[in-house]
Design goal:
The protein is built from 10 helices and 2 strands. By secondary structure, the chain is mostly helical. It has one domain. A two-stranded antiparallel ribbon has the order 1-2. The longest helix is centred in the last third of the chain and has 30 residues.
Length: 272
């Protein structure tokens, strides 16, 4: 437990300045998490294959050429190298006289959209919105605030199992408590920004509602990652973070929270 807490605090000390500074440094950091997460994801399904390497290269190219404010499929600078990569991979398979393995290709594509496309919305939210420097924190408040609240509420009040097969320690009481904690934290965060005249009063309610919805999505993301691990007979995806597991173990809830927060807050920004 002590190792888990120390590791989590160290991670926060690394995350906070990156979210404040943003720009190229945040882009590099997210790219690193994407590559680590995709590597762990592909390795969970067996040996790393050529298709998986192609997926990793595609993710790096995507993160390098992504343009905040544009949908990733509408970024022409990304599409050209992506097409070249597909052609190169297919040529590689043909030259080696191998047959295509649909399962390997499907896992490669799933890994890209599940991890790279999802986590990239953190950068899109931070850099693509006028208020992105404030809005991006909701992703982590919703996910990790909920995780923390769920842990302590579940530890003290948990009685009814939420998903005993996928995650035996999670309870309905912890799940509800986590959502309540995340919602309160988001509202408090909005209130602080309002008191410093950084945002209008209405954002307090927007932040609370966003955290409420996203915290539920984050818990589903956590269970989805657990489902994959249980299906592959794994306890953790890796051990890069002591007490937390791999990069994918730490960011599994962010993978579901970030795209939803990006969609909600982008929609709100278009209305205001």
């Amino acid at each position: 437990m002590i190792i888990r807490i120390i590791s989590g605090i160290a991670g926060l000390f690394a995350l906070v300045p990156l979210l404040i500074i943003g720009g190229i440094w945040l882009q590099i950091a997210i790219t690193a998490v994407v590559v680590l997460g995709m590597w762990e994801f592909y390795r969970a399904f067996g040996d790393i294959r050529a298709a998986h390497i192609a997926g990793l290269v595609l993710a790096v190219l995507y993160m390098a050429f992504i343009q905040p404010g544009e949908h990733f499929l509408g970024s022409l600078p990304f599409l050209f190298p992506a097409i070249l990569l597909v052609v190169a991979y297919m040529s590689f398979v043909v030259m080696r006289r191998e047959s295509f393995k649909p399962s390997s290709i499907a896992i490669t594509i799933l890994g890209f959209f599940y991890i790279a496309a999802s986590l990239s919305t953190v950068l899109l939210l931070r850099e693509g919105q006028a208020l992105g420097v404030y809005l991006v924190w909701l992703v982590f408040i919703s996910a990790w605030g909920c995780d923390t609240g769920a842990y302590f509420v579940g530890l003290t009040m948990g009685r009814h199992k939420l998903a005993p097969v996928l995650s035996p320690k999670k309870t309905w009481e912890g799940s509800i408590g986590g959502t309540v904690v995340a919602t309160i934290l988001a509202a408090a965060y909005g209130f602080i920004l309002y008191n410093f005249s950084l945002l209008d009063f209405g954002y307090i309610l927007i932040f609370a509602l966003t955290a409420f919805v996203c915290s539920i999505a984050g818990q589903i993301g956590d269970l989805a990652a657990s489902s994959i691990k249980r299906g592959r007979g794994l306890k953790d995806y890796g051990n890069i973070m002591p007490g937390h597991g791999g990069a994918l173990d730490r960011f599994d809830s962010i993978i579901f929270t970030a795209p939803l927060a990006f969609a909600i807050l982008t929609f709100v920004e278009t209305l205001l």
